[in-house]
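Notes taken during the Thursday session

The instructor put the following on the board and asked us to keep it in front of us for the whole hour. The protein is DUF4321 domain-containing protein. We were told not to look anything up and to reason only from what is written here. First, the residues (82 in total):
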Amino acid sequence: MNKHKNIGWLFITIVTGVLIGSLIGSLLGKALPILTFGPGPLGINNVSADFGIVVFNFSFMIYLNLAGLIGLILAIILFKKI
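Then, after some discussion, the predicted structure tokens were revealed:
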């Protein structure tokens, strides 16, 4: 497998791990409130470029919590095992 394909699969694995971890944290947040602990939203909010005819708006926010971090770590371990 070439290097670029590995980087692509690593990115997909990490994003999937964080999403699944955050989803589990949201579902179990009332039963285990520690899973929802985190720094809050991180990212870029409302960056726009106006070119007269075309306007681009861009936002990228990540809402990290402990469950998402656990999912990230498990995804990296899983990627290394594969």
